[in-house]
Amino acid sequence: MTPRVTVLLAVHDGEPYIRGAVASVLEQTYRDFEFVIVDDASSDGTVATIESFGDKRIRLLRNEHNLGQVPSLNIGLREARGEIVARIDADDVSRPTRIERQLEVLDADPRVGLVGSWMTLVDERGRRVGALRKTLGDYVDFVFHTLIMRVWVSHPAAAYRREPVMAVGGYDEATGPSEDKDLWRKLALERWDARIVPEELVVYRLHNAQLSQTRAAYQREVDGRSQERFLADLAPDADTGAARMLLADDPALWHATIDVDAVERILDGAEEKLGLDADEGTRLRALVGRWLLSVAARRPWTSRSRLITSYALSLLPKSARADALLAAAPRAAVAPIRIPFAAAARRVLASVPSLRRWRAARRLYAKLLGGD
To answer: What DSSP state is assigned to residue 17?
Structure first.
């Protein structure tokens, strides 16, 4: 009988933590699954530990040579029999109800192709050091966070539909160790939605040997290239490098040319290529506008900030611009009076007469009249 779920784990020399990871999967309240483990030519006791469980749900695949995590994951994907794939890493632990709760979300909406969860963060000794608690409300929210490179679904906490993942080619082996983010972007382009179960269903271990720590700089580079391909799919004629820096609040932004036209092209492309209706398009623009106001507020005294602020306000409905500007005003007001931002702020306040009905806005406006 074909299992509905495949739990997928790729491991190389994972002996210190693999027993806990495997045990946590075998103890799931949901029972209709197979556990595909791809051993990537481990030289320690990883294989012996896995085999010691003697559980028939485990399918152990062994690479003759070390291929790397992403090729190993693709081997597991091709061998998977379940319609749903739940990922886990060798140094992490799943809570007993993880699969059950994620399936509930997938079953509730056929448009959802990807589900994550909140995660408990622990150190090498298993001591709690924090938690990751993010949410995704709907498809527009998923697209927005993807645009600004805030991909909230963590790979070892992800469960996804296998068929659409295979349709886009599985994991792109050139994008490791950002293969998960690259895949989520492709799912978003195919109009698959994503959600996050608001429960800490995965225990994520932080330690110096994990790939995200040992290859952090390279990961950022690869992730940036993947993001620019995603943006290019939305707007082939846009300057995706400039758009990525602005949307992602890249530190290099403040030393580069600001290209708001590139962002505009990408938003137009998102509405068209993702099939957003009028309400969805308006909400996406408003989310981006509010985000860019927060980006501009980091350096409110610069000409770049003035340009970003002006464009960000244009993305908001007229009825929301006054409140949005007032929300950003406290950060801008701490800058010296006689700075270029003052002139820009005066122009914005003057262009929105309704702002001056607010006492705080009148005070800010009067203060800015004294500076340039």
So the answer is: T
Residue 275 has phi, psi (to 5 degrees) of 65, 35
Rounded to whole angstroms, the Cα distance separating 158 from 117 reads 7
Q: Which two tokens stand for residue 3?
A: 């299992």
Nearest to 38 by CA among 58, 15, 16: 58
The model's confidence at residue 324, banded by pLDDT at 50, 70 and 90, is confident
CB 81 within 8 A of CB 13: no
Q: Read off the amino acid at residue 80.
A: A
- Given a contact cutoff of 8 angstroms between Cβ atoms, the answer to whether 85 and 162 are in contact is yes
The pLDDT tens digits for 123-171 are 988 899 999 999 999 999 999 999 999 989 999 999 999 999 999 999 9
Residues 213-226: what's their mean pLDDT?
85
Residue 294 to residue 310: CA distance in whole angstroms = 12
Mean pLDDT of the 236-244 span: 97
Query: What angle separates helix 359-369 from helix 340-351, to the nearest 10 degrees?
Result: 140
169, amino acid identity? G
Angle formed at CA 73 by CA 70 and CA 74, multiple of 5 degrees: 90
Beta-carbon count within 10 A of 269 CB:
18
Distance in angstroms (rounded) separating the CA atoms of residues 260 and 249? 13
pLDDT > 70 in the chain, percent: 87
Distance CA 193, CA 153 (A): 12
Does residue 301 register a pLDDT over 80?
yes
**Beta strand pairing call for 33-39 and 58-62:** parallel
Cα distances from 344 to residues 247, 323, 359, in angstroms, run: 22, 17, 20
- Residue indicated by tokens 């004294």: 370
Mean pLDDT of the chain: 89
- Fold exhibited by the domain 5-218: Spore Coat Polysaccharide Biosynthesis Protein SpsA; Chain A (3.90.550)
Q: Is 271 helix (H, G, I), strand (E, B) or coil?
A: helix
CA distance 258 to 242: 7
Token pair 């820009």 is found at 344
pLDDT recorded at residue 75: 98
CA 53 to chain CA mean position, Å:
35
Tokens of 295: 């980006």
